[in-house]
Amino acid sequence: MMGRTIFIDPGRCIGCQACVSACRECDSHRGKSMIHLDYPDEGHSVASLPTVCMHCEDPVAPCAEVCPADAILVTADGVVQQADTTRCIGCANCVNACPFGVPKIDLQAKLQMKCNLCYDRTAYGLAPMCATVCPTGALFYGTVEELRAERPGVQVADSFTFGDVVVSTGVAMVVPADKVQWPVPGGLPIVEVNGKAVNQANSGTAGGGRQADGKDVTR
User: Fold this and answer.
1) Residue 37: phi, psi to the nearest 5?
2) For site-directed labelling of 119, which of 23, 66, 133, 196 has its Cα 20 to 30 A away?
3) Which residues form the 4Fe-4S ferredoxin-type domain (predicted)?
């Protein structure tokens, strides 16, 4: 895990969308938010969850690993950058490879866009925009020691399973101490492939992708 990173605490999220609004102010993608505010049980619960890039490091982020144009660079401190506009060809390989469903594709510009941990800020010791405006601390930026000093006994996870694959991440998630499994199960059952329903019992798990308009891309 990176020394200073984002810790996501789903239990503190109130769905206020302050993080979404703040993300739109980032100079690298002004006007477009790279945060997905998800509702895991929409229609039955008000529970919400901010989803940011997890900056995978196992040993290379899946999105960077499958990029045929080497457009997705990883910095020395483990931050997975959004696609280089001079190299990205809009193939969407990264969208399909990401187990967390983070990258977006701007279909008109043929360009991948995603959270880069506000690298223009974090590279100089400043917190990402989303963490600076979160009123409840659902997005906490700092070290795990700083997090535990503020929230004694908190448990965090930075490895997740997707089927038989374990993905280690640079961003961590707060998990219930009494229910934690190591690594933490990730992903959602596949319910549709190419428009056809599949048997969830035999499908395993997989991530999803999003277009720039926020719509899910099933596969």
Assistant:
1) -95, 105
2) 66
3) 4-34, 79-108
